[in-house]
Write the structure tokens for this entry.
Amino acid sequence: MELHQIQVTYSAEEDRLLCRASFKGEDEGLQEVRAWLTRRLVRNLWPVIIDALEKQVALDQPLAAHASADIVGMDHFASVEEIRESGSFNNPYETSIQAYPLGEAPILVAAVNFTLNPNEPIRMNLAPHEGPGFEIAFSQTVLHGFCSLLKDAVKAAEWELNLSMPGMLMPSAGMALN
């Protein structure tokens, strides 16, 4: 199945982030999986996402491996701009779900594992302590979009986590570049 949409929102009642991902199959209707992401998980997940992005750059572009952090930062900026310009961030999340393969109640994610292969999407597997989890195959652009959604949800949660991209530091107004 192919990823259709992804949404990350903050639930004040749960003090968790709700990640909803919908998938479309060939003749199947829209299916959705739901997962709770805790503050602790997000705090530990963010550096792993950055590491996965940097390693994917090295796998896809071995000659540019030395600049992978800068490339990730530039890719993030370009991907988020591309998504914004296409209007995808403004599209409402579709609610016409036909099936919930893991049930309607979100799973509480306890572990996240990544699978990286040259010139393939980054695969992220989200799993609870017990029972089935799910895997999402992210293109670079969509993973950067997910990172942007995650950053926005963390900001709304007021968790005071620094979710910054490498190579994205901008000089302050008082600094001069030579």
Remarks:
- The longest helix spans residues 39-60.
- Residues 37 and 119 are 28 Å apart (CA to CA).
- Confidence is low (pLDDT under 50) at residues 169-178.
- The first strand starts at residue 2 and ends at 11.
